Amino acid sequence: MTEPIRSTARLVPITRDSHGVDIDLVYASDRNLTGKPIYKRAHCLLLEPAEAALRTAVGIARESGLTLRIFDAYRPPQAQQVLWDFLPDPTYIADLTRGSNHSRGAAIDLTLVDASGAELDMGTGFDAMTVESWHFHPGLPQHVQRNRLMLLGIMHAAGFTHIPSEWWHYELPGARALPLIDNADSGPWQLM
To answer: Are 170 and 148 in contact (CB under 8 A)?
Structure first.
């Protein structure tokens, strides 16, 4: 496993009021692939450059009458270990020898919601971890393909890149070069 460093890197809090996003941090609930909470409290953070790119994405989405709903952002390495222990498949969970870009504060999982607050249909739920979750999975209905492409366009225009296997996952280009940030000892990141 790549050793995390205790970091003073600035993780910026992301809130509904400060960023105009909807936040539903599923790892602080049982509505995730493990079926149990991983965090004791919901707390959304991103590294400063990722937070700046998120602000751009929020503005682009708003121009289309949409809002971003965030499912996960910074994730302590210890939480990544919980996910790996549950599903040790590097197709969907970052291999611990490389570390997750979530644990670098440079990745975000999200979707789009319309003006009524309803999530756009992306064909699968967040954390589905199936072949249907791949960005360009053939055979999905046109409206699903269109919704995924809209999210992809917004996030790419804001400076993020994607990984092929998860329509919801975006990260800063070159994020793998950043150090892992171990802030799990801070209050909000106490694991269950």
So the answer is: no
